Model the fold of this input.
Amino acid sequence: MKRIYLDHAATSHPLPEGVKEAFCDAACLGNPGRSGHALSMKAANIVYETREKISGMFGVMPDKVIFTSGATAALNQAIFGCYNGGSVVMDIFAHNAVLRPLHALSQQTGAQIRCFSPVPNNPVETVKRFENCLDRNTRMAVVNGSSNICSAILPISLLGDICRRRGILLIVDGAQCAGKIPCNLEQDGVDIYCVPGHKGLQGVMGCGAMLLSPSCKTLPRPYLFGGSGSFAREKNMPEALPDHLEAGTLPLPAIAALGAGVAYVQKVGIEEISYREEQTGLHAAEGLSVIKGITIYAYPGATFVFSHKNISCEDIARQLDAYGICVRSGLHCAPLSHEHLGTPRDGAVRVSTGVFTNHRDIDSFLCAVTKIVS
Amino acid sequence: MNNTLIYAVPTVTYAQMGVGILSKAGFRATVERNHAGKEGCGFIIVVNSRNAAAVEAALQRGGVQVKRL
Done:
């Protein structure tokens, strides 16, 4: 049975050519940045090449590409490593990778967390609401570049402009937009951008990165401590980046795969990838909209959610799986977004297309949904 | 006469950045393990040149901190 994969917001699939090979080849090398023998040096070169590719894509220096275990680890590092008092602003589309660290931060420090509700496709109103949410004590804003349950995109450069003028550190959760929406940290006023390796950047699960803008004045405090391969007699983490924030052995195979994935994204082009994903996503949404009993929630595009008036989302996802179609049901770690869009209490079915999704896949998906609901 | 310049760096990433910058500036440079010394992170930049001023100026422009050994 041919599998039709419509769960790209969870992780991209299949891997572009060269990614798996890069992963497997790197699994046979030494520890990067530790020893001076050939296997270790080759590993270090692969890590550096990936840093360079990412730095070129986002307009940062290679030493300011900090590898982490994923976007969640990057967000935790950014939030806990940079918080220095004051209130923090977040948005209604926040994933639990932002919601939970901010909740923990509030519990630990008493930080006031304020939440604003962006209006997708209306940057003027979004900016107004963002500004209304700021107070004199706001020192940090953690915003979602793009929702993981719909195609709502925030006007990051406009928010960045406000943050720059008011001296607010802007952290962007790029989990759903890295590799899909161009971002130059310096030009867009973003201080810290957190990305996963396995979604829009087309790598594999196991690594992500925290990117620091050239003009970011805050050097995050480490939240992981350990070996860096440098200055071993020092009890503190080395001051120089990236070693300051990269304790322990790096996930070399995942980093190598990420390098190959980024090369693929650069070859095809971010605009082309976004266009393809949006077209197939809209095709799916249009097809669903004429099926009786289906509700499609706001801001459809490459990613959107739907429900049926009589069949639970879990049931729809399970039955689609029997047709070989992969979607995700539930709340997608984004409870506020679901509340905002007005989905049922148990959530909805998410459809998220990828660069390899084609219109025939969508037709098969629509055919399966039609059979399930009838 | 010795034709190489050797520099200690704070991290292996800086060594790699340095090699990239020097290559673009027309120098031949490599990252090597510093088996002899205690300076820096344990890795060094070895540059096939005697023109220390030009090498260091290029590294400085690229934001790579080095210490000549």
In short: Chain A touches chain B at residues 32-33, 35-37, 41, 44-45, 48, 51-52, 61-63, 228-231, 238-243 (CB under 8 Å). The mean pLDDT of chain A is 97.
